[in-house]
Amino acid sequence: MFHRFRIGDMSATVVSDGPLTLGPPHKVFRGPAPEAIARALTATGQATDALHVAQNCLVLDTPAGRALFDTGLGDEKPYGPDSGKLLASLAEAGIAPESIDAVVLTHAHSDHCWGTPAFRNARIYMAEAELAYWTADPPLETHRPSLEGFRRHILPVRDRILTVRDGEAFLPGVQAWATPGHTPGHLAFLFEGGWCLTGDAAWHDPLSYAFPEAQAAYDTDRSQGVETRLRVLDRLATDRLRVIGYHHPWPGLGWVERGAGGYRFVAEG
Ligand SMILES: [Zn+2]
User: Fold this and answer.
1) Ligand 1 centroid – CA 199 distance (Å)
2) Could you tell me the domains of the chain?
3) Residue of 55, 100, 97, 56 whose CA lies nearest to 78
4) How far is the CA of 222 from the centre of ligand 1 (A)?
5) What predicted TM-score, i.e. pTM, was given to this entire model?
6) How far is the CA of 152 from the centre of ligand 1 (A)?
């Protein structure tokens, strides 16, 4: 599945790695009453038993080459049988894996980076803090399967990794934005022309928007995750940035408005 659009003068394509099934909503988003969470999901036509989310990777054709933002789960399937479709989606869009010059990672969780080894010609960009976190010796206290997956899928390609700092314009028209909390080196990306790829800083439509202060179970530092989410949402709404949401309903494009007690994601095709 792919969706082509433009970011300024650049051709952009959202490519799907397929959907994931995550935990029960009230266990992932802590704080709001389970009934309030269920109501918000039902109002947008979503199931309430578990979180069902998309994986929307982005291909951006920059003047300095073709970049792929996040690479999905690869061929492992920890979150249901329907992931691992990125290569098929790229083929549908006529994009050869060898044509990817740069892989850009928001962070090193399974669903964002385990597909990386398929892109053999790519430099790999990630935050310095993220690489330091996952390669710390002795290893920091973290989710064991994530750490083992990082070692399986990212350590073998470590010689192609280039680290990126907050505010760095490391590709033409692309700037890194440090948004830590979900992971210590989580990055969002700002694109020329008023766009933001948000990664997992605010990843669920509608729950991350309706309940921005809920602590999210998948955040490494949950308090910092809340602070960052509030900072990101404030900027997205104030600057009216157009958003590319990784886990938002396909294809994940839209913008953010302030709403009663929180925010609202407004999807656009
Ligand atoms: Zn994710």
Assistant:
1) 7
2) 2-267 (3.60.15.10)
3) 55
4) 15
5) 0.97
6) 18
Judged against a pLDDT cut of 70, whether residue 41 lies above it is answered with yes
Q: Encode pLDDT of 172-197 as tens digits.
A: 999 999 999 999 999 999 999 999 99
Report the separation in Å between the CA atom of 111 and the middle of ligand 1, taken as the mean of its atom positions: 5
pLDDT reported for residue 139: 80
pLDDT per residue as tens digits for the range 45-95? 999 999 999 999 999 999 999 999 999 999 999 999 999 999 999 999 999
Q: How far is the CA of 178 from the centre of ligand 1 (A)?
A: 16
Q: What percent of the chain is modeled with pLDDT above 90? A: 96
112 CA from centroid of ligand 1 (Å): 6
Compute the distance from residue 120 Cα to the ligand 1 centre, in Å: 23
Neighbours of ion ligand 1 (CB under 5 A): 111, 200
Compute the distance from residue 150 Cα to the ligand 1 centre, in Å.
14
Whether 49 contacts 38, CB under 8 Å: no
pLDDT in tens, 118-154: 999 999 999 999 999 999 988 877 788 999 999 999 9
Distance 200 CA to ligand 1 centre (A): 5
- 70 alpha carbon – ligand 1 mean position (Å): 10
